[in-house]
Amino acid sequence: MIYKKAPIVSLQGQPVLLFNEQTTLLNALESKAVDVFSECRSGFCGACKTKINSGEVSYIHEPLASLEEGECLPCCCKPQSDLDLDIPHGRLEESSKKAD
Ligand code: FES
Fold it and tell me: Which residue among 20, 24, 29, 67 is least crowded, i.e. fewest CB within 10 A of its CB?
């Protein structure tokens, strides 16, 4: 049996989660208190559009919002490999502070 390693998701080089869930990238990021702006949460509006620094994603269903090269819609995709997103890691720290 071939075991596929769970992808590591990083924010500008800072690892934040191991993606081993049956959910979207957006839900996984939110579970780690990473603030990603979203509206429709189903690939229509493009509000969650995020730049990928490295790595690949696959779509759970084909998104309707248009994407440029190197962008993804976290609300309807999953990482296919280790993934580095262009989201400042500081947002995570700010969110953590609020929880204190
Ligand atoms: S939240 Fe609308 S496309 Fe992701």
Answer: 20
